[in-house]
Backbone:
C-alpha cells in the first residue's frame, strides 16, 4: 500500500474517532449516555440503523457472494420492508410509551423476571459473539490480502471503537454513523465507477450486464420454491420477514437506535426510510460483485483468491501440478473470452441464435474452469487438510488492491474499516445497555445514583469491547462471513421473536409457559442446525412458530402467571 | 392502524405527531409496501431481460 493510501486511511479513521469523542464529551446521566436523551432526528435514526446492519462483512463478502453465486442474495432482504411496517405499527409506539431503555425491560412487565433475563441472555450470547465476528472479519481479510498483522489490526479496530463508544455512548455511535455511511457510500460508488473504467473500451455498461446475465450472475429474483434453496423469493419473503422482525424488533443493537429517536414519528420515519432504501443498497453492492465477475472475464483472475493458501500449495510438492492447472486455466480463459466477444457481437447484430450458441460455449468454458478450480482445491487440501478453500471473502479486496489507483485503495479500505467500526460501536453500546439495565440495575443495585449507573455503563462498554477483541483474537476460520453471521443470528432470533410475539399478540399466555416453550424452541433450532440441512433462514420461522404454539398448549396446563407492567 | 392496549402497555402518554409529507401513517405504510412491490417487479424484469 502506498504512502498516499495510508494517509487517506489514517486521516479518515482519526477524524471519525476524534469527532465522535469531541462532539459527545460531558455525558452526565444514563439516559443521555444510553439513549442520547431521546433527541435523535429521523434521518440520523435511518443512517444509524443502516450503519449498524452494514458491517465490514457486508462490503467484503457481499460482492464475492455475487461473484460466486449471482445476485440472488438480494432476496434475503425482501422481508425487511414488511418488518419495518409491522414494527412501526406495534413496537415503536409501545416502547416509546413505556419509556424503556431496552426491549427486554418490556418482557418483565408482560411476563416476569425470568423471561426478561432469558431474552437479555440470548441477546448477550449472540451479540457478544457477533461483535467479535464484526472485528475479526475485516482483520482476517486485510491480513491475508495486505499482509497486515492480524492481532494488531484487531487491537486497533477494537480499541478505537471501544474508546469513542465508551466516551460518548449512543450519541457518539449515532454521530459517527453519519460520517461512516458517507465514507462507505463514497468508497463503494468509486469502486463501481472504476470497474466500468477498467473494462475494455469496446465493452459498454450494457454489454457488461449482458455478459453477467448470460453467465447467470444477474439472477436477482427466483420464484421457484425449493425447500433446500437458501435464497429464493419465498425464503426471502417469509424467512426474511421473521429474521428482520426479530433483528429490528428484539435485538437491542437495533432497538436502541430507534429508541433514541426524539418522538414516535421520528423513530417510525427512521425505520420506514430504512425499509425503502435498504434493498436498493444491497442490490448496488451485489451489482458491484457481478461487475467484478465481468471484469475478470476480460482479465484472467487468479485460480484462487486467497494468496496465503495459494502460496502454501505453490511451495509444496504439488507446485508443478498446481502450475499446470494454472496454465490450463489461462488457456480456457482465453477461449472463453473469444466466445464472450462473439456473444456480444451477435447481440449487437440482433442474431439471437448466434447469441445462444456463443452463450453455450461460454457456459462450457466456465464449467471447465470450475472443474480445474475443484482440482486446485483438492491439491490445497492435500497440502493442508485444514486449508480454507472458500475464497468468497477475498475476491473484492483482491480486486481493489490489484486494480484500483493509489488513493482510492485507501478510501475503500477506510470504507471497510468504517463499516466494521459502525457495527461494532452499536453492538458494544447495546451490550452495555442490556448488561446494566436488565442485569446489574435490575438484580444487583436498584437505587444507585445516575452517576453510578453512568460509570457502570462505561465499564460495561469497556468489558464488552475487550470480550469482542478476545473472541476475535482466538477465532480464525469462518467460511463465507456474511453467511456465518446470519446463521449465528438465525440460531437465536426465532426464539427471541417468538417470546415477543407471544408478549404482543397472545395475551392469555403467561410467563412460565412462554419460558418453557422458549427453552424447547431453542433446543429444537439447535437440533435443526446440527442434525439437518434445512436452510438457515427457516430457523427463524421454526423457532418462532414452535415457541408460539407450544406456549399456547402449555398455558392450558399451567397456572396463570402474573401480568402487569412494572418498569 | 390502531393497536388495542392492555394494562401493562399503558405507560406514559405520548403525543401523536402527524407524519411528514403524507396525511396519515397508513399512507406511509402503503408507500413502503408499494416500493417493495415495485422493486420485486423491477428485479424480476431485470432478471428476465439479462438472462
Residues:
Amino acid at each position: 500500500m502506498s504512502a498516499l493510501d495510508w494517509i487517506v486511511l489514517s486521516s479518515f479513521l482519526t477524524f471519525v474517532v476524534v469527532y465522535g469523542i469531541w462532539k459527545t464529551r460531558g455525558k452526565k446521566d444514563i439516559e443521555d449516555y444510553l439513549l442520547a436523551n431521546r433527541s435523535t432526528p429521523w434521518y440520523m435514526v435511518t443512517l444509524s440503523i443502516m450503519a449498524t446492519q452494514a458491517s465490514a462483512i457486508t462490503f467484503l463478502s457481499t460482492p464475492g457472494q455475487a461473484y460466486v453465486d449471482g445476485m440472488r442474495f438480494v432476496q434475503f432482504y425482501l422481508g425487511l420492508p414488511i418488518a419495518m411496517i409491522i414494527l412501526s405499527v406495534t413496537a415503536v409506539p409501545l416502547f416509546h410509551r413505556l419509556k424503556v431503555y431496552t426491549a427486554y425491560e418490556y418482557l418483565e412487565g408482560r411476563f416476569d423476571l425470568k423471561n426478561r433475563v432469558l431474552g437479555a441472555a440470548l441477546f448477550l450470547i449472540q451479540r457478544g459473539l457477533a461483535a467479535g465476528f464484526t472485528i475479526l472479519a475485516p482483520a482476517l481479510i486485510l491480513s491475508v490480502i495486505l499482509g497486515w498483522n492480524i492481532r494488531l489490526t484487531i487491537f486497533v479496530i477494537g480499541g478505537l471503537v471501544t474508546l469513542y463508544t465508551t466516551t460518548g455512548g449512543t450519541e457518539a455511535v449515532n454521530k459517527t454513523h453519519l460520517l461512516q455511511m458517507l465514507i462507505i457510500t463514497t468508497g463503494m460508488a468509486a469502486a463501481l465507477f472504476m470497474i466500468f473504467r477498467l473494462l475494455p473500451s469496446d465493452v459498454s455498461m450494457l454489454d457488461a450486464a449482458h455478459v453477467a446475465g448470460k453467465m447467470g450472475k444477474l439472477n436477482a429474483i427466483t420464484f421457484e420454491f425449493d425447500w433446500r434453496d437458501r435464497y429464493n423469493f419465498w425464503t426471502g419473503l417469509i424467512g426474511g420477514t421473521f429474521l428482520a422482525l426479530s433483528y429490528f424488533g428484539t435485538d437491542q443493537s437495533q432497538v436502541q437506535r430507534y429508541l433514541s429517536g426524539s418522538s414516535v414519528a421520528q423513530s417510525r420515519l427512521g425505520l420506514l426510510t430504512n425499509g425503502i432504501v435498504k434493498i436498493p443498497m444491497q442490490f448496488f453492492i451485489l451489482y458491484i460483485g457481478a461487475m467484478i465477475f465481468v471484469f475478470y472475464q476480460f482479465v484472467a483472475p487468479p485460480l484462487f483468491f486467497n494468496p496465503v493458501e495459494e502460496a502454501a500449495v505453490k511451495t509444496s510438492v504439488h507446485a508443478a501440478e498446481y502450475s499446470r492447472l494454472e496454465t490450463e486455466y489461462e488457456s480456457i480463459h482465453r477461449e472463453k473470452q473469444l466466445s464472450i466477444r462473439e456473444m456480444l457481437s451477435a447481440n449487437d447484430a440482433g442474431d439471437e441464435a448466434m447469441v445462444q450458441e456463443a452463450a453455450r460455449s461460454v457456459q462450457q468454458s466456465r464449467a471447465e474452469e470450475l472443474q480445474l478450480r475443484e482440482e486446485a482445491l483438492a491439491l490445497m487440501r492435500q497440502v493442508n487438510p485444514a486449508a480454507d478453500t472458500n475464497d468468497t471473502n477475498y475476491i473484492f479486496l483482491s480486486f481493489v488492491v490489484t486494480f484500483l489507483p493509489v488513493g482510492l485503495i485507501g478510501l475503500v479500505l477506510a470504507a471497510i474499516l468504517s463499516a466494521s467500526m459502525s457495527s461494532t460501536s452499536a453492538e458494544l453500546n447495546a451490550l452495555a445497555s442490556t448488561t446494566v439495565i436488565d442485569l446489574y440495575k435490575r438484580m444487583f443495585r436498584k437505587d444507585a445514583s445516575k452517576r453510578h449507573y453512568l460509570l457502570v455503563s462505561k465499564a460495561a462498554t469497556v468489558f464488552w469491547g475487550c470480550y469482542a477483541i478476545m473472541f476475535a483474537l482466538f477465532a480464525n476460520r469462518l467460511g463465507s462471513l456474511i453467511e456465518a453471521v446470519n446463521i449465528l443470528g438465525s440460531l437465536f432470533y426465532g426464539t427471541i421473536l417468538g417470546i415477543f410475539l407471544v408478549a404482543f399478540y397472545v395475551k392469555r399466555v403467561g410467563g412460565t409457559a412462554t419460558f418453557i416453550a422458549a427453552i424447547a424452541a431453542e433446543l429444537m433450532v439447535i437440533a435443526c442446525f446440527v442434525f439437518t440441512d434445512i436452510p438457515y433462514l427457516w430457523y427463524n420461522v421454526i423457532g418462532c412458530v414452535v415457541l408460539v404454539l407450544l406456549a399456547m398448549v402449555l398455558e392450558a396446563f399451567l397456572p396463570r402467571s402474573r401480568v402487569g407492567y412494572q418498569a | 392502524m390502531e393497536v388495542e392496549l392492555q394494562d401493562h402497555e399503558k405507560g406514559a402518554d405520548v403525543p401523536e405527531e402527524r407524519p411528514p409529507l403524507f396525511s396519515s401513517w397508513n399512507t406511509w405504510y402503503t408507500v413502503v409496501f408499494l416500493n417493495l412491490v415495485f422493486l420485486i417487479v423491477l428485479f424480476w424484469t431485470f432478471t428476465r431481460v439479462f438472462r
Q: What stands out?
A: The first helix of chain A runs from residue 3 to 23. The domain at 3-296+409-555 of chain A is CATH 1.20.1730.10 (Sodium/glucose cotransporter). Chain A has a mean pLDDT of 86.
